[in-house]
Amino acid sequence: MSDMLAERREALIAAARTAMDTAYAPYSGFLVGAALLFEDGAIVTGANTENASYGLSLCAETVACAIATHAGRRGGLIAVAVLGGAGGRTGAAITPCGRCRQVLHELAALGGTDPLVLGVGEHEVVETRLSVLLPNAFGPSNLF
Ligand code: THU
Fold first, then answer.
1. Model confidence at 1: pLDDT above 90
2. In this protein, which residues make up the domain named CMP/dCMP-type deaminase (predicted)?
3. Closest approach atom of ligand 1 to CA 97
4. In angstroms, rounded to a whole number, what is the distance separating the alpha carbons of residues 122 and 109?
C-alpha cells in the first residue's frame, strides 16, 4: 500500500460516505458515493446522478472522474472508494460497473497508475486493483 493511501484511507472512505448523501437517485433509490485519492493527497468525490431518461444516468465514479478531469487532473490516481445501497443504507460491498471501470482507467492510465479499488460494505472492505477489474484494457496508449 502506498504511504499516501495508508495515511488517507479512512478519510477516503469517509469522503465517499459523505458524497453518497448528495446522490440524486429518485428512480432507483440506490444511492452511491465515490471518492478518488490522488498522489498529492487530494480527494475528489462524486455521487450518482440519475435522469428521467433512465439510460442517461451517471454513476458516482463517473461523476467523480469528470470533476477531477475538469479540475485539471490528468493521472495520479492511486485509489478509489465506492459505497452505496438502497435508500443510502450501505449493505454489501460494491464494485464499479463496467462503464465506470473504463472511465477510471482513462484517468489512471494518463499517469501510469493501477489504482486500488475499495468496495466498502457494511461489514467489510473488498480491495481489488483496477487492472483486475478491467484486464487488458483499451486506453489512451492505443490512440496516442
Ligand atoms: N451506480 C453507481 O453510481 N455506481 C456503481 O458502481 C454501480 C451503480 C448507480 C447507477 C444508478 O444510479 C444506481 O446506482 C442503480 O444502478
1. no
2. 7-141
3. 6
4. 30
